[in-house]
Amino acid sequence: MHDDLQPLLLTFQLAITVTAILFVLGLPLAYWIAFSKNRFKYIVETLVSMPLVLPPTVIGFYLLIVFSPQHFLGHFLETYLGIRVVFSFTGLVIGSVIFSLPFMVNPIKAGLQNFRHELIEASYVLGKSPWETLRRVILPNIKPALLTGIVMAFAHTIGEFGVVLMIGGNIPGETRLASIAIYNEVEALNYDTAGLYALVLVGISFFILLVFYYLNRKPLKIF
Amino acid sequence: MIKIRIKKEMHTPRGQEWLDIDLNIAKGEFVTVFGESGAGKTTLLRILAGLTQAQEGYIEIDGDVWFDSQKGINLPIQQRKIGFISQESSLFPHMTVRENLEYACSDKNALNSIEEWIITIGLKGLEAQRPDQISGGQKQRVALIRALIKQPKILLLDEPLSDLDIHARLNLQDEIIKVYQKTGITTILVSHDLSEVFRLSRKVFIIHRGKITKSGSPQEVFVNNDLSGKFKFTGEIIEIHKDGVLNILTLSIGNHVTKVVASDEEILGLTIGSKVIVASKAFNPLIFKA
């Protein structure tokens, strides 16, 4: 039974790690996109949203190439830093961060853009720096957007299959996530185990979204 | 002393126009900038506050240069020491009245003055309310205290009363007068309400399409002085109604609406919205005990 649960635990470990990293990366990125007057901003916006339209296997394929020890970056990481990205948990994290980026950035960006600019100006006039304004005025007022970003990124990481299969493979305890395990068990005709994983994923996803929509009864338009 | 010489391109419904302002305001003066919407009043205040940047010019407040396009000086908003109140409430919705005021405080002195201000402006009992739980007039009072609590050098009021009903407006005018008398702070009010200009300020600048066209006391600027009437009121025509041989004008004078009769000659060239002076000789006034 212990072995049976491992893909599920690994899935949630990945989702928590990825969501935490995405929040730290996504907030400044969303802030920049929302408020920067840089005229090449739309290029960054396009890149952030690419995972929404690309097949996951495409992103997985490129990550596999870039991080493979035969290529410069993969070689450099492995030789000098001792980090192996492909077919490892680190690889899963990198792939999922890229793939779930728009799910974190876009809701936060929308929240920031819809926020009343006069309140930001009022804070500046009162002598407060942009950082203090963000912390004490903006963030407390865009909690629904932050929550949307966190929940969407988390849920999307749980549901990921293509990218993680390409870059992570199927190593038990290391990269075999629940979504991949289901596929394997079905291939091996172990419908009971596959059914267990599937049921747990359905239940947990339903519960997370249910709580989210309950807390956030006026949901934000995200895309 | 405030010296302002600025130029800034404005995009208006009439096309491109230049805001081209050159004016001085004495320390401690209460002045009004009066003009129709789109004339550049708000832009002028925003440039003073540092929220909008002028293309060229010079701004000096009590000897400190805040903006000098030639020397590349542009003091950040945060360092400009201004109090700014806009038309719409800019209270932080997630903070209570007290928290809004505390947010503005940068030192202990300011924090200690909160209580005194709350009593002066009559907000006692509302400290724990959030902005959406208090009235428009109360919100603007909180905004007024919040603007003053860190002792700014100038107070900029961008039509802070225009969204309020007449009762709240009069109340807040009283508070503004009170605050001005208490602090003696140099105040610039943007307004397009004549009664407000007369009631609050000693000096008015008329701004039209980005340029100052007239300045002086409200009397000098708005009231034609070569009449010999003893009573003079400036008002605005709300309605013109023909009744037999007479015309009945409905006027808004100060905070009152009144009707007067006028001959065909008198109303020549007058339309709804025209500013008029109603004058009366002193021989037949009706006096009532107030």
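qc> Chain A touches chain B through 15 residues (CB under 8 Å).
qc> done
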